[in-house]
Fold this protein.
Amino acid sequence: MNILRGEPLARHTTFRIGGPAEIFAEPADLSEARELLRSARGAGQPVLILGAGSNLLVRDEGFPGLVLSTRRLDWLAAGEGGLSAGCGVRIPVLMGYVVKYGLGGLEFLAGIPGTLGGALVMNAGVVGREIGSAVRTVNVLDESLAERELAAGAAGFGYRSSSLAGYPLVAGVRLALTPRPPAAIRADIAGQVHRRRLTQPYGIPSAGSVFKNPPGDYAGRLIEAAGCKGWREGDALVSDRHANFIVNTGAASARQVLGLIERVRAAVRSRFGIELELEIKTV
């Protein structure tokens, strides 16, 4: 088990922003993860479960407790009309796996930089497609830190949400997928990645979409129509390519990002009377 103290979380988030963790740990398996969670609970420490660090803004002060990285909880196994996987599996690795074994149904996730655990908690997807629709069962650690298997219907999947965030750890998942020619899967994945690169900022640190789409509309359209594209706070910038992305153009702080978020919210509220809801998580 790898344990570090004072580890800068900017090294572990796609935003490249975030102060130090009091304790940063990478368990090698579920047993070690349970041991860490039990120890943090006994010490009264708060816990942050960290996957790839996407969809996340860590404040400049850092995190005063245990940051449990799922990076090494990354098992994968095909079979029974789908696959089983650990929460730490990164989406690009998952895409390579489904191509190798000819398992269709997840192509829409291509280009998302997060982990499977994070994708499950926020029910990641695109318009009309979400990972929750492919879930057969989810394995979690419950409040007693015992492993439990939940049916998909008990996971509370909704738009960019689920009830899984209420558990100490989402450990893994069984996904129901459909046999498909690998070449067809590969082509769809390539098309999805190409579309993302055309429409979203690429190669610049960000946390992904900042706001959820309000019912019947798109946050990016509202932000652009409110004149916010190109707004800046220090090195934090509302992307010129997609207005629902804030990018880190150099050494942006969390404080600058939060200031930009509130300016954008106020502009959309003033222009349209709509209160934008955050999609990214702030810690």
